[in-house]
Amino acid sequence: MQPTPRFEELDYRETPLGELILRRRTIPTLENLEVHEIILGDAYLMTSMFTEVEQALSRLGVAATRRAFPGESTLDVVVGGLGLGYTARAALEEDRVGSLIVVDYLQPVIDWHEKGLVPLGPGLVADPRCRFVHGDFFELALGAGFDPEAPGRKFHAVLLDIDHSPSNLLHERHAAFYGPDGLRRLADKIHPGGIFALWSDDPPEEGFMSALGEVFDSCESHVVTFHNPLRDNESASTVYVARRRG
């Protein structure tokens, strides 16, 4: 029997943001646990070992729509950042989500899902509610909107998981989005009373909470903890949830 390779490169692409690698590896110290990882340049974008906060982003964001739209039976949702698909899948677990647009800047990431190179890809592709859009989330948020087939369309929730945090960005051009002016332009794409939720790898930031408070009717920061089996300790990230004025 051939031994399982510890590291297996499933795809390699050159992108405008640098070298992009999809890797599968096994971890012998964790009973040969198999994980998928996305690496951009020198940075880890995503690993299937830690997905609790990505899923919490969807669950907290969609849960907030129950209070905002108690009589709404069909929700239209946007996810910014496809990654390994955990945020998108968690959103689709809510039966009231009638349509989901997932925006990603990197076409190879979409290709991996459509070709079944990542575990959640086939399920997302098979769900008729889910559609991938190749585009720059930040340009769309500040411009005509997230649905290229319906410019100006509004959504009940927008869930964002792209930058490491509002102050730790993948690219400096994203910075304008996180200020009050950028958030106002995003809010124009959300139904009155709708939800904007954001994942951050850093603790809650007072400056970003202040910017949210200038634009949205309410905002909360949730610290989500999860176990790190490699270090055998607890780690934490943040999910911000803001509601647009009704």
How are the secondary structure elements laid out?
Blueprint lengths: L6 E9 L2 E10 L5 E8 L2 E5 L4 H17 L6 E6 L5 H7 L4 E8 L2 H8 L6 H6 L3 E5 L2 H6 L12 E6 L19 H8 L2 E11 L5 H10 L2 E11 L4 E11 L3
Parallel strand pairs: 5-6, 5-8, 6-7, 8-9
Antiparallel strand pairs: 1-2, 2-3, 3-4, 9-11, 10-11
Characterize this entry briefly.
By secondary structure, the protein is an alpha/beta fold. Helices cover 25% and strands 37% of the residues. The protein folds into 2 domains: 41 residues; 192 residues, 3-Layer(aba) Sandwich (Rossmann fold), CATH 3.40.50.
What does this protein look like?
The protein has 246 residues and is an alpha/beta fold. The chain has helices at residues 52-68, 86-92, 107-114, 121-126, 137-142, 180-187, 206-215, and strands at 7-15, 18-27, 33-40, 43-47, 75-80, 97-104, 130-134, 155-160, 190-200, 218-228, 233-243. It has a seven-stranded mixed beta sheet. Strand 3 (33-40) and strand 4 form a beta hairpin. Helix 6 crosses helix 7. It is globular, with a radius of gyration of 18 Å.
